[in-house]
Amino acid sequence: MDRRGLPAMEPEQALRVFRRILDHDDIALTVADIDWERFYPAFALSRPRPLLHDVPRVAELLTETAAPASSGGRPALVEQLLGTPPAEQRHLVLAAVRTEVAAVLGHDSDGIGANRAFRDLGFDSLTAVELSRRLAPVTGLQLPPTLVFDHPTLADVAAHVHQRLTDATAELFATLDRLESRLADSALDADAGRAAVERMSLALARLKELVADGDGDGDGHEPDRAEATANIGDATDEEIFELLDRELE
Question: What is the CA radius of gyration of the chain?
């Protein structure tokens, strides 16, 4: 029961709670020491359990699941994938997934084959939920608790994660393409044009800071509005998008 989030209670603690219950007229009460981080994800594996959503810790868990990305920036794995050839990307993702699988099972990662089924490794609903929770901050992705059932081997999960991360990059470029098309079709007056250039300058400068530090020519500071605008204020639309493409390669 402890593995399912229902650890045994100390007798003294349980008796204190029962004595408090006897002082009231409440009926049909249950006394339990519940580890919600373990209990709720497994309990809600097949379907949501709205009756528990008002429990404070459950509400926090639901919020964390909806937005797993950390405020400290991109996960280290995502940083490693930038500018890395696809074959090496797949290797990095596979290694990251294998590390988390080993941590969940308490095994050495070297002994876990990429094509071995999670079922054969001893995974159940609890360890499946735990793996999904561990992979979320590593990848920056929202992963379902049914991950190992939908993708039954380590290699399958790694391929799925890699595809999700690659799709996120493709979506970014698609957004840039749409923006470039809108700019070409827009008839902006002088004030609106300057405001648009200023906002794009800030966004581009922040983007450059994210990718330049790893290339040795960024100093890690966040540019202010005047500095960002001065750097590329004279650039054409084509030069701006060319720079975006080059920095994200």
Answer: 25
The pLDDT of residue 158 is 95
DSSP character for 234?
T
CATH class belonging to 76-167 = mainly alpha
Closest CA to 127 of 149, 156, 96: 149
* Mean pLDDT (whole number) for 29-51: 76
| 40 contacts 13 by C-beta, under 8 angstroms | no
Whether the predicted pLDDT of 146 surpasses 50: yes
86-105 vs 154-185: helix axis angle to the nearest 10? 130
Question: Residue 138: CB partners within 8 Å, gap ≥ 6?
Answer: 75, 77, 96, 100
- Residue 158 sits at φ, ψ, to 5 deg, of -60, -40
Give me the amino acid identity at 33. D
CA distance 172 to 180: 12
Question: To which residue do tokens 């990429």 refer?
Answer: 114
> Domain-by-domain residue ranges, the chain?
2-66, 76-167, 186-248
* DSSP structure class, residue 72: T
Count of residues in the chain: 249
Q: CA 230, CA 181: separation in Å to the nearest integer?
A: 24
Decide if 204 contacts 228 (C-beta within 8 A): yes
Residue written as token pair 């008002």: 54
Six-digit token string for 11: 């007798």
Predicted confidence (pLDDT) per residue in 74-83, tens digit: 788 888 887 7
